[in-house]
């Protein structure tokens, strides 16, 4: 079934629709969404994107949920027709980037060094030429900004990819 509906928030709308349809049907319903499409010419592309999103949701074990490509993290970046790399970096690292910009700090560099050194506090402090307590304090601040799961394997993959994309888009 294909549903075309006006929406500026396809991800949250797909989540709501999956829950409502699942309850009505009495079984899990998975909804892949795309858009917004601004006219009839964009509908085929939006349909294709929603179908890719649906396949990805199923492959990731998210049966019974809904989402859009933007909700799928780096998988969405890979599956999307128009890779929004800047948007991905902002969704993943935004609070840290904003903190650095507002306070002239460099938590992004600390985070990048931490992962580059295999999550070793000792090697990170050596690379950054700071005391190990400074590294610990910075990582605690990063944890408050990104959430308690920032250092869990699935999330670290997302963060490391966003860090690399950030470096690539910032230039030398």
From TrEMBL:
- What is the top-level taxon of the source organism? Bacteria
**Domain PucR C-terminal helix-turn-helix as annotated: residue spans:** 107-165
Residue intervals of the CdaR GGDEF-like domain = 2-55
InterPro entries hit by this protein: CdaR-like_regulators, CdaR_GGDEF, PucR_C-HTH_dom, PucR_C-HTH_sf
Family (UniProt)? Belongs to the CdaR family.
What is the protein named? Diguanylate phosphodiesterase
Q: What is the protein's species of origin?
A: Streptomyces nanshensis
